[in-house]
Amino acid sequence: MRIAMIPLLLVLAACASPSPEFLAAPRQDLQIDGIDFAVFQKANRAEVIRLGYLSRRDRERVPGLMMQAAEQASGCRAIPFSLKTRVPGDTAEARINLKC
């Protein structure tokens, strides 16, 4: 039974779910510079989730790409320096303020 659970856990770990604030927001998937993102937008805010694994070295460029993903998915302008993560330095999830 435990062995059968491993594939299920791997599938669930690959899912990108929004935070409670963005649960009703539509999801847009896009790829920028070879990195996949899921973007959820509600009004003038976006939550961007990076999908997949990246090495520590490859993560340096992610915050800028998250800003681009928010702009492309929403059609709005990302407000400079508005990117916030729940864990400082985290490149897996960010919230960005938008000017629409």
UniProtKB/TrEMBL annotation:
<feature type="signal peptide">
    <location>
        <begin position="1"/>
        <end position="24"/>
    </location>
</feature>
<protein>
    <recommendedName>
        <fullName>Lipoprotein</fullName>
    </recommendedName>
</protein>
<keyword id="KW-0732">Signal</keyword>
